[in-house]
Amino acid sequence: MWGIYLLWAGALGVCDVRSRRLPDVLTIPSALMVCAAAFVWQPVALWGAVMWVGVQLFSVWLVAGVGVRYPLGGGDIKLSLSLGVLCWWAAGLMGVLAAMGASSLLSTMIMLMLRKPNLPHGPAMLLASTAVMVFGGW
């Protein structure tokens, strides 16, 4: 299972870095499969998706309200559906919060180091979520 996840995450990361897009062909089917599996086996894990999507939508609304361009797109929101459920499965509520915080911190640090105001956020989301899934149970 890890092999499939790593191929999927690697493809998404490369696509986002190269084209600044997370393709629907990779985000939508995975979100549907992961959310369906959660609905069947552990419905409470769907709260991970709801939380991550909700925080992202709120932050987009908040930043757009002050007229600042926000480096978060629809692909990032669709990706957070899958990652929210997977992080909840790995480490519960704290896992989702840790992945959200770590991905935001990682994106911010990279933007500051490279002095670029706008970078793709998908790779940071994937790295933070992978770390939660690997180390979440410890």
What would you say this structure looks like, in words?
The chain crosses the membrane at residues 50-72, 79-100. It is a single chain. The protein has 138 residues and is an all-alpha fold. The chain is built from five helices and no strands. Helix 2 packs across helix 4 (74-114) and helix 3 crosses helix 4. The longest helix has 41 residues, at 74-114. The chain is globular. The model has no long low-confidence stretch (mean pLDDT 92).
What attributes characterize this protein structure?
single chain; 138 residues; mainly alpha; 80% helix; globular
Helices, strands, pairings?
Layout: H1 2-19, H2 24-41, H3 46-65, H4 74-114, H5 122-135
Helix pairs in contact: 2-4, 3-4, 4-5
Overall strand count: 0
The number of distinct helices, counting runs of at least 4 residues, comes to: 5
Helicity, as a percent range: over 70%
Output the radius of gyration.
14 Å
Unreliable spans:
none
Structure class: mainly alpha
Overall mean confidence score, pLDDT: 92
Number of domain units: 1
Strand content bin:
under 5%
Q: How is the biggest beta sheet arranged?
A: none
Distance between the termini: 20 Å
Pfam families: Peptidase_A24
InterPro entries: Prepilin_IV_endopep_pep
Protein name: Leader peptidase (Prepilin peptidase) / N-methyltransferase
Organism: Corynebacterium spheniscorum
